Structures are given as C-alpha cells and as structure tokens.
Amino acid sequence: MDQSFHYLSMVNYALFQKKVLNKLMEIGLTPGQPKVLDYLSIHDGSIQKDIAGGCHIDPATLTGILERMEEKGLVERRVIKGNRRSSYVYLTNDGRENSKKVADVFREIETEVFKGIHKEEIERFMNIFYQIFCNLSNTEGQE
C-alpha cells in the first residue's frame, strides 16, 4: 500500500466520510450536511459566507446544501434588521437534534480511529495535523 501523505490523506478522508454517511443515512443526511450541522451547532445564526468558509465549501455548493436542509426542516434563513442582502442561517429544533446525532457519530468514529493509540500520541498527532492545516491554509490560492 502506498504510504505517501497525499494517498493516505485521500483514502482516510474517503473512509471517514463513508463511515459518517453510512451511520447518518438513517436520518437522511446527505454529503455536506453533517459538517454544516456541526458548524451551525457552534455558530448558529451565521451568514452563508461564514458557513462556506468554516466548512471549506464553495458558496454556490453551499446554497444547494442549505436549500435541501431548509426543505427537510433542519435550518431556517432569517433576514435581520431588514438587510435583505444577508440572510442568517439558524438551526431548527430538528436541526439541533440532528446536529447532536452528528456529534455523537463523529465522537464514535474518532474513538474507533484512535483505538490502541496512547493519549500522548494522539495529542502529538493532532498538533502536527493542525500544523499541516495551518500550512495548507496559509498557502491556499497562492502559486
């Protein structure tokens, strides 16, 4: 098996996503929706631009995700103080319930991911993983 960083990153992401979606299929969530619910559970009442940035989703893609979530009754958009240019996205009661299920699934899979790895090693890995994120974020869009 190829143990290069790019290969393992792609495969681990695909496996993680597959596990998440398989576990959340019973409540009808589709790709993109779990991370939006997760983001809104911390940042309820965000504007779409902030959600897109926080979830690393293209704004046009997020529009479709939010429309489907609104149809399912998971989120609602509100215009505040008459500013029609920016709507704020809030979780509904069903959205809050589902965001808790998403959090439970994330915790369950993370426990599985780190099975047999000592706490100190997990902390070290997460620090390095975060540094990789910072390195990639600082170079995003630069060539």
Blueprint of the fold:
Layout: H1 5-24, H2 33-42, E1 46-47, H3 48-55, H4 59-71, E2 75-79, E3 87-91, H5 93-113, H6 119-139
Antiparallel strand pairs: 1-3, 2-3
How is this structure best described in words?
This protein has 143 residues and is mainly alpha-helical. It has a single domain (5-110), classed as Winged helix-like DNA-binding domain superfamily/Winged helix DNA-binding domain (Arc Repressor Mutant, subunit A), CATH 1.10.10. Helix content is 65%, strand content 8%. It has six helices and three strands; from the N terminus they run H-H-E-H-H-E-E-H-H. The protein has a three-stranded antiparallel beta sheet with strand order 1-3-2. A hairpin with a 7-residue loop joins strand 2 (75-79) and strand 3 (87-91). Helix 1 (5-24) crosses helix 5. It is globular, with a radius of gyration of 17 Å. The model has no long low-confidence stretch (mean pLDDT 91).
Morphology call: globular
The percent of residues in helical segments reads 55-70%
Give the count of helical stretches: 6
Structural class: mainly alpha
Arrangement of strands in the largest sheet: 1-3-2
Please indicate the percent range of residues in DSSP E strands (runs of 2 or more): 5-15%
CATH architectural category = Orthogonal Bundle
Main pleated sheet: 3 strands, antiparallel
